[in-house]
Amino acid sequence: MENGAVYSPTTEEDPDPARGPRGGLAAYFFLGRLPLHRRVLKGSQLLLSLLAFVCEEVVSQCTLCGGLYFFEFVSCSAFLLSLLILIVYCTPVYERVDAAKVRSS
C-alpha cells in the first residue's frame, strides 16, 4: 500500500490561512466581534465583578450576614455570567449559538 493513499484523507497539507500565525488555544480567541467600546465595557464588568467578589471574601466577621451573602451571590454570578458571555463572543461557539440570543444576553 502506498503512503499517500493511507495518509491523504487524514492530513492537512496547507493550514487555513485565516487562522494566521497563532496556534493552540490562542487561535480560537477572536476579539474582533466586539467593538472597542463594548470590549472595554465587558472587560471592566468582568474585572469589577471579580474585585467585588474578592472584597466580599475579605470580610471575616459580620453581625447580620444576610445582605453580605446576597452580595456574594450577586457578585459571583455577575463574574461568571460576564465571563461566559465574553467567552461566547470570542470563540467559535458564537457561530453555533443563535445570534439573537447572544445579543440579548
From TrEMBL:
MARVEL domain mapped to chain residues: 33-105
Segments of this protein annotated with the region Disordered: 1-20
Gene Ontology cellular component terms for the protein in this record: early endosome membrane; plasma membrane; recycling endosome membrane
Record's subcellular location: Membrane
Transmembrane segments: 77-94
Keywords attached to this entry: Membrane, Transmembrane, Transmembrane helix
Membrane topology (UniProt): Multi-pass membrane protein
Protein known as: CKLF-like MARVEL transmembrane domain-containing protein 6
Lineage: Eukaryota, Metazoa, Chordata, Craniata, Vertebrata
